[in-house]
Structures are given as structure tokens and as C-alpha cells.
């Protein structure tokens, strides 16, 4: 009976040991799979971090270019604004000059008209005097 029980216990122990070994092998496989997955995820994280770093670098470079372009455009706009202001002042002076010249031309035309009228009257007087002097001895 003891021998049979011992044999039964040994068999049960062997079965349990085999189950334990199988469980340990499965656990080791799972650990290996998990380790592989961890390594794969670490590589993926490294790649993504590298991509993120590259994107940040590209974005910073792009932003620097945009800032330089904005600065250049602002300077250009300031220069054009100053030129516009100068042109407006020049236009104002030219308009004043033009107004003065138009006024001068108007006055000279009036004087010319008056002189032409006076000349016409003087001619008439000369002709009248000639006619009168021709009638007199």
C-alpha cells in the first residue's frame, strides 16, 4: 500500500513537475515575446523621437525663414511708406506750383486781352485821326 502510494505520489510529482516545467517554458516564451515586443517598441519610440526631432528642426528652420522674410517685408513696406509720403509731399508742391502757374497764365491772358483791346482802340483812333487829317488841308 505504501509502495503503491509512493509510486502514485511519484507519478503525481512527475506530472506536476512536468506541468511546472511546461508552465515555466510557456512563461519563458511569454517573457521572451514580451522582451521582443519591448525591444520593438523601444526601436519604434527611438524612430518616432528621431522623426519628432527632425520635424522640430525643420519647423524651426521654416519659422526662422518666415521671420526673416517678415522682417524683410516689413522693412520694404516701411521704405515704400516713406517713398509714398515723399511722393505725396512732392505731389502737393507740384499741385501748388501748378495752381500758381495757372493763376499767372490767367492774369497774363487777361492783360493780353486788355492790351489787345487797347491796341484795337488805338488803331481805331489812329485811323480816325488819319481820316480827319485827310479831310483837313
TrEMBL record:
PANTHER family: LEUCINE, GLUTAMATE AND LYSINE RICH 1 (PTHR34251:SF1), LEUCINE-, GLUTAMATE- AND LYSINE-RICH PROTEIN 1 (PTHR34251)
Alphabetized InterPro entries for the sequence: LEKR1
Gene giving rise to this polypeptide: Lekr1
Recorded superkingdom: Eukaryota
Protein name, per record: LEKR1 protein
Source organism (scientific name): Drymodes brunneopygia
Residue ranges that the Swiss-Prot or TrEMBL entry lists as coiled coil: 63-97
This protein's UniProt keywords: Coiled coil
Amino acid at each position: 500500500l505504501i509502495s503503491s502510494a509512493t509510486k502514485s505520489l511519484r507519478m503525481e510529482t512527475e506530472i506536476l513537475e512536468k506541468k511546472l516545467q511546461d508552465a515555466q517554458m510557456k512563461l519563458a516564451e511569454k517573457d521572451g515575446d514580451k522582451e521582443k515586443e519591448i525591444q520593438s517598441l523601444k526601436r519604434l519610440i527611438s524612430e518616432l523621437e528621431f522623426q519628432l526631432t527632425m520635424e522640430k528642426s525643420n519647423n524651426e528652420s521654416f519659422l526662422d525663414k518666415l521671420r526673416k522674410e517678415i522682417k524683410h517685408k516689413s522693412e520694404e513696406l516701411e521704405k515704400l511708406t516713406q517713398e509714398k509720403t515723399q511722393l505725396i509731399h512732392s505731389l502737393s508742391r507740384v499741385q501748388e506750383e501748378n495752381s500758381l502757374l495757372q493763376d499767372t497764365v490767367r492774369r497774363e491772358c487777361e492783360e493780353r486781352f486788355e492790351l489787345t483791346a487797347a491796341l484795337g482802340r488805338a488803331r481805331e483812333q489812329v485811323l480816325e485821326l488819319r481820316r480827319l487829317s485827310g479831310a483837313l488841308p
